[in-house]
Amino acid sequence: MARINNSTLVLATRRSPLARRQAELARAALAAMPGAWWKKIELLEMSTTGDRRRDWSLAQAGGKGLFTRELEEALLEGRAHLAVHSAKDLPTTLPDGLAFAGFLPRADARDVLVRRTAIKIPRRVATGSPRRQAQARGWWPGVEWTEIRGNLDTRLKKIAGGEADATFLAAAGLQRLGIEKFSGLVFEPLAIGKMVPAAGQGAIALECRAGEAKKYRIALCAKTARSVLIERAALAALGGGCQLSSAAHMDGDELHIFHEPKGLATFFIKEKSTARAAAGAVAAIHRWLKAK
User: Fold this and answer.
1) CB-based contacts of 162: which residues, under 8 Å, 6+ apart?
2) Which residues partner with 85 through β-bridges?
3) CB 132 within 8 A of CB 240
4) CB-side neighbour CA atoms (13 Å) of 266
5) 123, 142, 214, 266: which one has the fewest Cβ atoms less than 10 Å from its Cβ?
């Protein structure tokens, strides 16, 4: 049990193997921060609604806040100083009283098609993500869509065991857990222009109480912050969230977006100010959505 005191920094995290790995990466970055007030960093491991309700379909349940709400409550109640999230899990609007402390350097943001080795054209694909379904729907005529839940290792075992022919996973999660191969499966990373990632995918977000972000920002990545904040503004402009069929990803100065039924588009965002870049992206998306 993490303890709040004058020399211990407490990080709230989910209990899954990937979440703990991401929390350890956050702990390492914060431990290296010069001039920090903390002498020790502890993890407060928590179970979220999304973790407990494995019987729920994420697409039907909505998904907003299912993997973040309990961690945010720990912040608001003073049981933790920071919450560590996969940035793609966070709704486009944070709860009142909370803010981003920042982001760790982003990992590979691509999606990976994971299919059984013997299967060249999948007939049954497991994903609860409307975003992934919407973008892949035309690839395999007549494909049957289903859903699998569980941590990465569990999902890989289910695909290898024949519950489905293929699934999609985030490259960053596989890399952070050191999963480069799996018996009976083939991993195929997908180009950003073919499968636009979820806003924030590949980034680890640190959330804090409003007004406290400056305590931590020196340890975090300004480049990743700019990209993710632009993506989140773009997603809001598209009218989507983490469980809706829209997506936004910054690749350098290129903002790739997907919106159903409008499709794919790319905008060039060269403004260095994050606020002005986000405003420009939103204006460009609104014009694009209105165009015939």
Assistant:
1) 116
2) 205
3) no
4) 11
5) 142
Q: Where do the CATH 3.40.190.10 domains begin and end in the chain?
A: 8-107+199-290, 111-189
Residue 241 has pLDDT above 90, yes or no: no
Is 0.85 surpassed by the pTM of this model?
yes
CB of 144 closer than 8 Å to CB of 82: no
40-46: strand order across its sheet? 40-46, 8-14, 82-86, 204-209, 98-103
CATH homologous superfamily, domain 111-189 = Periplasmic binding protein-like II (3.40.190.10)
What does the pLDDT look like over 49-82, one tens digit per residue? 766 655 544 454 445 666 789 999 999 999 999 9
d(CA 80, CA 180): 34
Active site residues: 89
| Neighbour tally for 49: CB within 10 Å | 14
Q: Which residues of 201-212 are buried (b: 16+ CB within 10 A; e: fewer)?
A: bbbbbbbbbeee
Q: Check whether the bond before 105 is cis (ω within 30° of 0).
A: no
User: In sequence order, what are the residues at sequence separation of 6 or more whose Cβ sits closer than 8 angstroms to the Cβ of residue 107?
Assistant: 171, 172, 175, 176, 202, 203
CA distance 45 to 19: 9
DSSP 3-state percent helix, strand, coil across the chain (nearest 5): 35, 25, 40
Class of the CATH-defined domain 8-107+199-290: alpha beta
The C-alpha R_g of the chain, in whole angstroms, comes to: 19
